[in-house]
Design goal:
The protein is an alpha+beta fold. It has helices at about 5-10, 15-20, 30-50, 160-165, 170, 175-190; strands at about 55, 60-65, 70-75, 80-85, 85-90, 95-100, 110-115, 120-125, 130-140, 140-150, 150-160. The longest helix has 20 residues, at about 30-50. It starts with a helix and ends with a helix.
């Protein structure tokens, strides 16, 4: 290699970058590695002992719960229906059923199935242009309802006492199709929960 070309190339280098590249790289310290391992173990233990519980629903709603908090994400949720022309089709669980004549503001279409070993109900209701959906499932000690309706979304956690008192009627307000749907499966839900 020509000496002049090499000298020109060296003159074009940024001295700060050369120093930065020549500096010895810092490895993560032992304490940092121990802390990372401890945190990973804590998360695993929380999951194994039931302190940290995660549910991924049929509709794609993601729920992470600890004894005192819950995080819910509808980010990847998919409605269990499609609208084709003026028709509404129930499309979850491999179905493609025309439910147009079966739903309105007060009456939902209810589909019963099982998801990850849990009894699950999917509901679609509302008027054209204002449709909503809900996924209802029974856990060990409570019934959960994830829903999107009226431009909003939410999750209800109903233990046996709240379910029997039908407290959800107050919480749902104007979402009458969902209240009617919960009324329709009330007996089945009560049978799945322990006595209050």
């Amino acid at each position: 290699m020509d000496k002049e070309i090499l000298l020109d190339a060296l003159n074009d280098l940024d001295p700060e970058l050369v120093e930065e590249g020549a500096a010895p790289r810092r490895r993560p310290g032992r304490r940092a590695l121990i802390l990372a391992a401890a945190l990973a173990a804590a998360v695993c233990i929380m999951g194994a002992t039931g302190v940290l519980e995660r549910a991924l629903l049929m509709t794609g709603v993601d729920i992470v719960r600890t004894p005192h908090r819950a995080w819910v994400s509808f980010r990847f949720a998919e409605a269990p229906y499609t609208v084709e022309g003026e028709r509404v089709y129930f499309t979850a669980d491999g179905q493609h059923t025309d439910i147009t004549a079966q739903i309105d503001e007060n009456i939902p279409y209810i589909y019963e199935t099982e998801h990850e070993g849990r009894p699950t109900w999917l509901m679609v209701g509302g008027a054209p242009g204002a449709l909503g959906w809900a996924e209802v499932w029974a856990g060990r000690e409570a019934v959960e309802v994830a829903f999107q309706a009226g431009g909003g979304s939410g999750v209800l956690n109903l233990d046996a006492q709240r379910l029997r008192e039908r407290i959800w009627r107050e919480l749902l307000g104007d979402v009458s199709w969902l209240s009617a749907g919960l009324d329709a499966i009330q007996g089945e839900l009560e049978a799945l929960l322990p006595e209050p």
